[in-house]
Amino acid sequence: MEHLLKLSDLSAKEINDVLNLADQLKYESKHGIAHKKLKGKTLGMIFQKSSTRTRVSFEAGMYQLGGQALFLNSGDLQLGRGEPISDTARVLSRYLDAVMIRTFKQSDVEDLARFGTIPIINGLTDYAHPCQVLADLMTIREQKGSLKNLKLCYVGDGNNMANSLIVGCVKMGMRISLACPKGYYPDEKLVEWAGREGNIEITQELFKAAADADAVYTDVWASMGQEGEAETRKKAFKGYQVDRKLMEYAKSGAIVLHCLPAHRGEEISAEIMDDYAPVIFEEAENRLHAQKAILIKLLTGVDK
Ligand code: CP
Ligand code: NVA
Asked: Residues enclosing ligand 2, CB less than 6 A?
């Protein structure tokens, strides 16, 4: 693994290796076993959008591994005043050991990797959220024992989460069904790829998508950067909610996942947030373990 730009760059084996290392790190941290594997290493974290989980879990993760993280608000960087990403990449490569970036355009993440000489991690773009999906796969495996042949149902916007979940599920041999309103389907090319490689269904009917699901997933109706569309989206997504009625269609014992932040009463009911809080917040915790695994793989040369 050289970078983590999007999940489709990783093989099934690489994903499995990250999940196994994440499980091991979680076990060890619960048992007081610390690793200072990244002593002396520095991660730069560029944020062009808000964040709670990504920022804090990367920062804490670097600290726990003996390294340090620098929070770089893009508004305070020359990047925010028009310095090209190509120059930023070349400069930061001379100070840092890796960069995590949360931004709008996927091409900016790819350009950082192209012009820089250090590992780049995608901390969310409009197109993908690979770190989140690695934590999601870790959580599903933890809860269900394995991933193969499980069915994940995704309800809502065909956004960055939907795109990355499609890739994660297909790569791990899972089935995925998505219930999205017309006009809000996931990336067309990814859907075509998933149709060739695996088992994907896209429908506008929620109950059909949820039938027999082992895990039900949802995300906000309006993502960061889409605030101006919030009212239009509220109308378009009306009814696309994970609630107790929908969960009657899923398999008994099915889990509910949400990348968070959640909007109770929109994509998820308050009752479901309460019913499934233990697994949803475990999922949030797993961001830390999964990202520590990613950092170790990228920064220590393991599997390079
Ligand atoms: N799920 C997630 O990425 O959360 P943040 O936006 O808080 O980082
Ligand atoms: N789709 C959401 C995910 C947040 C973690 C967004 O991009 O805002």
From this structure: 124, 159-161, 219-220, 223-224, 259
